[in-house]
Amino acid sequence: MQYMLLIYGDQDGWKSRSEEENGQIMQAYYQFTQELQESGSMVAGDALEPTPTATTVRVRNDETLTTDGPFAETKEQLGGYYIVDVPDLDAAISWATRCPAASHGAVEVRPIWIA
Hints:
The chain is of the alpha+beta class. It has helices spanning 13-16, 19-39, 89-98, 101-104; strands at residues 2-9, 42-47, 55-60, 63-68, 77-85, 106-111. The strands form two sheets. Strands 2-5-1-6 form a four-stranded antiparallel beta sheet. Strands 3-4 form a two-stranded antiparallel sheet. The radius of gyration is 16 Å and the shape is flat.
């Protein structure tokens, strides 16, 4: 079964931490990614550009409306994701608890719908 691990955090947090602290966090992500790859559970994963680069698209009454930025203002923003292929939800949660974001933000675990 495949699950998406959605990584949420304060995108301005990088500005408030020292270069050394940010380096430690990035090293933790590199290690986590390597562990996922070596386990054979990683399908995909990437970081996302900050929310000001986003464009939200809505279609209402056959009219396309675009808005710069995210859909809603929030304290934490979606910053990246991993797609994992694991036996069950418990295994996906186990990976999510090891993701560095779990200690300074949040990791949402969501099953991928396969129709």
